[in-house]
Amino acid sequence: MAQLSTIISSILRDMVFAQHQANMYAISLKDVYSKNGRLDNFSLPAVALGEMDLSIQYGITDSSSEVEQYEINYPALRDIVKGISKSCAKLLLDSTIPIFSEVATAKDSNEAAPLLTLKEDKRTRRDFSTFLSRKIQKALQKETTAIINEDGTINEHNLARIILNVADDFLLNHQEIRDLLDKSTNSSCDEKAKTAIKAAIDQGLAALIQDVNVYRKRLVPSVDVCVTSEELAKLPEDAIHTLHVKVSPNNINMFLKDE
Fold this sequence. Notes:
Largest sheet: 4 strands, antiparallel
Shape: elongated
Number of strands: 4
Strand order of the largest sheet: 1-3-2-4
Strand content: 15-25%
Distance between the termini: 48 Å
């Protein structure tokens, strides 16, 4: 006996694995192509699984029980990621603007204008915070599985790692800020900014993700079925059901783009 959900999930896993194997084999041919001058400019062969129609015949042997299943609550996850991104963007700016101000005071007002504007102009600061928030949100969306623990809680270590990478790429290495930091006579500004960012994130994240869990529980009917020809042959014809499944392995975004 088997559960119908187990059979279907096994088919879907096999499809994913088959696509993975095809992708890995195509990549392995890269070295072969590069060693043969005539094939060097050829594109690697690739296979993409298209839509598939499956028909599964089964007979129900037991449907009297229910099982608890936990799944990711994606609408809630989107809201959580959006909130974390917004709060962390503010933390990044609050922790670094005082340090940037030290650099700005030591420079000509025209040269230091970007840093002074970031400090004094609320609109510029708000726009830059929104920019950082979107970068953080996009980075978290790319690593959804890395930030969710097996019990549905948020992985603080991976979350901090991703946010610190965004801070390094889009705040400290923002072109205008980077130019001014590189020209600063105080060589410790860079390290001071990194230390301040890490301290702010380490202290702020714990409060942001406290009691956060992205799993929700559902009660799902447990249907035990038989699918082998020998077992189905023992059942009357009207007790045999056919399940038609259309599977499309096309990528489905878990996160919707903001309008």
